[in-house]
Amino acid sequence: GQIVYSIAEETERGASVGNIAKDLGIDAATLSARKFRMITGSSKQYFNINASTGALSVNEPIDREQLCELKSVCLLNYELVLENPLELYRMEFKVLDINDNSPSFPLSEYHINIPEFLSPGARFTLPNAQDLDEGANSVQNYTLSPDEHFYLEMQIRGDGSKYPELVLKKALDREQQATHRLVLTAKDGGKPPKSGDVPVIVTVLDTNDNAPEFEHSVYRASILENSPTGTLVIQVHATDLDEGPNGEVRYSFSNTTSADLQRMFSIHPHTGEVTVNGVLAVQRPLLEMLIEARDNGAFGMSSTAKLLVEITDVNNHGPEITITSLSSPIPEDAVPGTVIALLSILDKDPGENGKVTCQISENLPFQLKPSLQNYYSLVTSELLDRELISEYNITITAMDLGSPPLTTQKTVWVQISDVNDNPPVFSADAFDVFVEENNPLGAFLYQVSASDPDMGENGRVSYMLRNSTVAGSALTSFLSMNLANGSIYAKRAFDFEQLRSFHFQVEAKDNGSPALSAAITVNVYISDQNDNAPAILYPTSQNGSVAVEVVPRLADEDYLVTKVVADDEDNAQNAWLSYHLTHSSDSTLFQLSPHTGELRTTRSMRSTDFLKHKVVVVVRDHGDPPLSSTVTVGILLADTLPQALPDFDDSGEPPPLLNATNIYLIVSLACVSFIFVVFIFFLAIVRL
User: Fold this and answer.
1) pTM
2) At CA 344, angle to CA 341 and CA 349, rounded to 5?
3) Which of 198, 301, 537, 567 is most buried by a 10 A CB count?
4) Please, are residues 356 and 399 in contact by the beta-carbon 8 Å criterion?
5) CATH architecture of 320-417
6) Phi and psi for 512 in degrees, rounded to 5?
7) What is the tens place of the pLDDT at every residue in 536-565?
8) What does the pLDDT look like over 317-348, one tens digit per residue?
9) What are the domain boundaries of the chain?
10) Which part of the chain is the Cadherin domain (predicted)?
11) DSSP 104
């Protein structure tokens, strides 16, 4: 928005101008909270705003003539910037002129030489008064002190400007009065009016009755503002009808031409060539000078012509980029269209040379949007991600439309602040942990690790075990976890034979608000140790007695006496069993298969073999170190199962040589042999 105020110059400090909050429809109570500020290109702060009421008052009295010089309209431009949300208002102050300056003349007195022989009606140019006020407060009329020989008349130049001329009313007589003292008074149109006086001293001469005359009353020329010294602007020419020295013309700038212009330009006294003499450091596009042509008579006569020089602008000012407001850092979750900065871009050149285009790189998530006149807003055009890019150096390029164009660049550093938009991420989809049974209490098992690309507290990860049960017991009775680094420790010793594996979940949570989390499954595999000796399932003994196996008295070779059956609760090689015969009462009679545990006879039984035998079998696993168990087996040679088993605690005794059984066998064998011999003998007799 824009609002215009009018204020008279020299208004005293503290005077009220208006109420900016009421005029713009802003709640005055929010001015301080919204960090209001007034921005102006002026070197002084002429106005104040009351932060509580929004009242606009004068801070510094304004001197219109000092501020705007000869401009017909004097304007002060301010911008009011408010934040949260960002708003910009343009304020324009029109400084009204008051009649605070009196007309003045460049010189303290003026001298005019007039030949005595001039006829009435001769005219002489009088100096123009200068009044810094404008309009009606500037010079309006001139008056001349009463004199019988002169009167005042106003003349109009070709451009419409007025100037006073002294007109001879009555012929002069030098012998009667050689000098006439007049007073020229300039009055302005103020209320009350102000005036300024200057003495005009007229000296009556006897010679040179023709003044030089210019070909034109107004000369016009144009020149580039960067023209070097010595550049020809224009050549003026005046003629004098007198002859000899009285007709020789010399050119110079009039005393009413400002000293600054006389330093910028020079005029050749003989040729009338006006050339550039210095840098054309002016802000006005049209310069006005008065050129005087004076003859070389004993009492030189002069005339003046106006020279109007138009300064043609060249593109010698690059754009100026000013950062009026900047918000940095900005959160990475800022929505597209968020205003980051407000830029003011100006070019002091007029016309096309002062028109500016502005742009930034296309590969950035930002864009420039035109705001008020000469203002641009830098806004986000895409979503931001601090984890990808944490800061941006945005180069703003401003280029005018001059030929050749001038370019200015300014870099804006924008930081991106973090928001908690990333949950922790584990380094794997699942973790497998291998632990040996019989571990010590508090043993370190594993360390899970999760990363969070956010910053600070948003990226600080803590770990915890999710509630679950293992083998009917709470997980926390088995494990503990370091919340800070994710280390997992055992709270009890594991037993492979009771629990071979289990799984649980670990949750990683960041410290953001709200907190984000992720979970992962940890599989625990318990590896076996050789902590169990083989258990012999068969043959078994009761109350410490020896297990007894009955074998037929005349059993054949490879007869299966018994099979030793054993089991080992361990796993893998710790449960691989082998069978060994460590003791036998007759080492030639029995053999043991190391893999199956089968105990067999190595030969047929003999009548001379002991009736009782005892063997000791060792069952050994393949652990490191190996564990073993033994079993003692008593072997009884009998055809029938006896009612009472013999005692196998001793190693067995050899049977007596002549017992009832042996005698019976011997008698039976003898009888059979005798019958066989008789039968053979009988057959032989029969054949013979």
Assistant:
1) 0.49
2) 155
3) 301
4) yes
5) Sandwich (2.60)
6) -75, 180
7) 888 887 766 788 888 888 888 999 989 999
8) 788 888 888 888 999 888 998 898 998 888 87
9) 4-96, 110-205, 213-312, 320-417, 425-527, 535-637
10) 6-105, 106-214, 215-321, 322-426, 427-536, 561-648
11) B
**Range 422-434 average pLDDT:** 91
pLDDT band at 110 (very low <50, low <70, confident <90, very high): very high
- Domain boundaries 4-96, corresponding CATH code: 2.60.40.60
- Backbone Cα Rg of the chain: 64
Instruction: Please indicate whether the domains covering 110-205 and 213-312 agree at the CATH topology level.
Output: yes
Biggest alpha carbon–alpha carbon distance for the chain? 229
Q: Tell me, what amino acid is at 2?
A: Q
Q: Residue 168 phi/psi, 5° resolution?
A: -75, 120
Q: Beta strands of 313-406 (E only): which ranges?
A: 320-326, 330-331, 339-346, 356-359, 366-370, 375-380, 391-400
Q: Is the peptide bond before 404 cis (omega within 30 degrees of 0)?
A: yes
DSSP string, 632-658: EEEEEE-SS--SSPPP-SS---PPPSS
**DSSP, res 437:** S
Q: How many helices (H) and strands (E) does the chain have?
A: 5, 51
**Range of weakest confidence among 357-361, 377-381, 645-649:** 645-649
Q: What are phi and psi of 16, to 5 degrees?
A: -75, 140
CATH topology of domain 535-637: Immunoglobulin-like (2.60.40)
> Which of 289, 287, 284 has the alpha carbon at shortest distance from 272?
289
Euclidean distance between CA atoms 670 and 662, whole angstroms: 12
Buried-state track 12-34, b at ≥16 Cβ within 10 A, e below 16: eeeeebbbbbebbebebeebeeb
411/422 Cα distance (integer angstroms): 30
Is the bond preceding 269 in cis, omega lying within 30 degrees of 0?
no
- As its CATH architecture, domain 110-205 has Sandwich (2.60)
Fold (topology level) of 213-312: Immunoglobulin-like (2.60.40)
Residue type, 254: S
